[in-house]
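Side project, low priority. Logging it here so it doesn't get lost.
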Amino acid sequence: MVIRTEGLSFNFGNQQVVKSLALQVPEGSIYGFLGPNGAGKTTTIKLLLNLLKTQHGSIHIFEQELKKNRISILSQIGALIEQPAIYQHLTGRENLLNRALLLQVSAKRVDEMLNLVQLTYAANKKAGQYSLGMKQRLGIALALLTDPKLLILDEPTNGLDPNGIIEVRELLLKLVRQHQKTVFISSHLLAEVERMATHVGIIDHGELLFQGSIKDLEAISQPLVRIETDNTVDAANLLTRKNHIVADVTDEYIYVPYISKDQMGSINMLLTQNGYVIFSITKQQKDLEKLFLSITQNT
């Protein structure tokens, strides 16, 4: 395990923000650390980076205890917390050269990192003129300058447009597949994490509700079929009578558990043959809120 914590807890005054966390992050994984805003994600990351002192429990990174091996461990970690620390009046290349000088890293790494994050074309452009996605990629390039084994990112896609989110996602996948990095990424976006993570931990109110592989997560986050029709209640009753499917009905939609594409086709045909107009029928993943409910109901 690249990251392993046992009984990790942290309080701000009388408020317990992190409750006995037992994280296990395998080498070579993209570990999605999921939870709503205020769940304790950023506090956990600051503990992992020794920006906050551990109050209770232990942190092992690269199988070494963090307190006793702080300098050697942190020298192998790249991090981006919330917004990247970028000098807006400097170009992308100048930002990287400045950091390389501070870290005593060869200037050759600068062009390598610009190429890796696909910013070579904008290397001589002022960072203040970068889009949000470009700034995030520059922040990741800054974090990668020392060629760390572990990359820790706190909400790296927050505030990005769809193109920016795709850019960051593809970069992280490339880092793991082609450059043998381990990535620990926090987010409140379940759908985005599912697209790239190999492992997931879900935290709420400082407590780890779930931890496992993405396949383990899929087993409890079974997608739904969402149906929009001209008579929601009667159509749902028909599905229950004919197919013995327990349907969840709202004012606008019918939701039934997704099984297969064939099942969706059968539902569509059944409703159409019985005179219902289908406006839409789609496969839909559970959102984070529904997933939390599934987990808490199963525990």
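Brief comment: The domain at 222-298 is CATH 3.30.70 (Alpha-Beta Plaits).
Revisit when time allows.
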